[in-house]
Amino acid sequence: MSRIHVYGPARLSGELSIQGSKNAVLPMMAAALLHKGITVLTNVPTIQDVDCMVSILRYIGCRCNRRGSTLEIDATFLRSVKIPDCYVSQMRSSVILLGALLGRAGEGDSSYPGGCLIGARPIDIHLEVLRNLGAEILEDGDRISAKAACGGKLCGAQFQLRYPSVGATEQALLASVLADGITVVQGAAREPEICQLCQCLNRMGAIIRGVGTDTLTIKGVEKLHDSRFDVRGDRIVAGTYLAAVMAASGSILLKDITPSDLTVPLDLMEQAGACIIRDEVKEQIAISMESHPVGLQFETEPYPGFPTDLQSPFMAFLAAGEGESLIREQVFEGRFATAEELKRMGGVIRINGREAYVTGHYPLKNAKVKARVLRGGAALVVAALAAEGETVIEDCRHIERGYEDICRDLRVLNADVRWG
Ligand code: UD1
Predict the structure, then answer these.
(1) pTM for the structure as a whole
(2) Cα distances (Å, whole numbers) of residue 123 to 14, 60, 171, 257
């Protein structure tokens, strides 16, 4: 069932609880490897990337037990330090397991995660981080073998990241929690998912200070202890459904989502014409959109800037709006590929290098399009809600990597969307 049929134009209404965050839970699952015991994660989303991480952890020797949205990981025994190639090719973020394996076992082995449609995605900063912490890294063709050089243990160090890479910051945290001495990471990424990883590690017994800032100080500890941690709502999934209201109009309430994780996107949606109420205490966002969005100008940046993962859903609603927009993509060079599919739906978009010029036009027209990538695929569903007639989106398995069930969720919001 990798096709989605959308019957538009829609008008959204209703309430929806947002699934747990994919980008937060994956590094927490890697963190569970650091503890010779049990880590319980709650509000874990049922998505393919989590299934893939569970498969890797089981291969390595962990016992993983899932009940609903609760995942119990018992990492008492490890039988391998090698991440199988088939999983690395399915989910390139599995590379952060190298840091966790080095921390736990003093060695780790992975194949090289290649580029993907959104960009070349090198891991040079990840490897620099591990070297800074005393790992010897052998790159042989597409294999990477890492070993803690001094007595099987990594050593704390002070270093500056060249770029606030999310993955490399996670790599640094995972590798340093059990290292000897103190690590200071300057220029660290500050995404909400990084803060959650720090909080989760601290709950496990790690000592990390500076959470939420670009300087993280990690005091190595001998061992961690059993713990339980609740994963926060997925800001990108929430942002996608907010974009859907922007495209289709209507009024919805999203629950279990922290509004301050989405400050810049919410400000922009207000600028485009939405009325938004943010409730930080109840963890809710209410949005109402009664017009077609006016044009916006924005660029993607590391947090707290506009998230690159929401660039395509925003392009989708702006294409169905009524103004001129300029989007600058500064994080992933290949993230404009979705524009070609949006054009097939009547979107008027011109790409010039890292800039996209969008001229809004409502309604869009129905077409047969291809999802190709995770967020870009979800953006096509957003656009289809503002198109007349039946839009068929093919290759939707990419969407299932990050959304529990985008059709189910949008049906709860009264859209006519189904798998088929
Ligand atoms: C994570 C998120 C992804 C999000 C991205 C940026 C997960 C599983 N994925 O990806 O959804 O879009 O953050 O918010 O959490 N780079 C290098 N060398 C490196 C590492 C990164 O040049 O060693 C470059 C990348 O090619 C990219 C930029 O840095 O251009 C940002 O990448 P990074 O922040 O590392 O993103 P990911 O951790 O891969």
Answers:
(1) 0.97
(2) 42, 22, 11, 31
Q: Which residues of 355-386 are buried (b: 16+ CB within 10 A; e: fewer)?
A: ebebbbbbbbebbebbbbbbbbbbbbbbbbbb
pLDDT band at 309 (very low <50, low <70, confident <90, very high): very high
* Average pLDDT over the chain, rounded to an integer: 96
The answer to whether 61 touches 77, Cβ cutoff 8 Å, is: yes
Q: Residue whose CA is closest, atom 1 of ligand 1?
A: 166
Rounded Cα distance, 26 and 258, in Å: 19
Q: Which of 166, 310, 332 to mutate to test the pocket of ligand 1 (most atoms within 8 A of CB)?
A: 166
Which pLDDT value is given to residue 115?
59
Please check whether residue 223 is in contact with residue 194, taking contact to mean a CB–CB distance below 8 angstroms.
no
Q: Model confidence over 8-50: pLDDT tens digits?
A: 999 999 999 999 999 999 999 999 999 999 999 999 999 999 9
Q: What distance in Å separates the CA atoms of residue 243 and residue 234, rounded to the nearest whole number? A: 14
Q: Mean pLDDT across the stretch 92-108? A: 95
**Distance from Cα 102 to the centre of ligand 1, integer Å:** 21
Residue whose tokens read 């940046």: 301
Catalytic residue positions, numbered: 116
Query: Which tokens go with 267?
Result: 């400000």
* 8 Å CB contact between 155 and 133: yes
Report the distance separating Cα 330 and Cα 277, nearest Å.
29
Angle at 405 between CA 400 and CA 407, to 5 degrees: 115
Q: Choose the residue to mutate in 161, 165, 308, 399 for probing ligand 1, maximizing ligand atoms within 8 Å of C-beta.
A: 165
Query: How close is the Cα of 27 to the center of ligand 1, in Å?
Result: 13
What confidence tens digit (pLDDT) does each residue in 236-271 have? 999 999 999 999 999 999 999 999 999 999 999 999
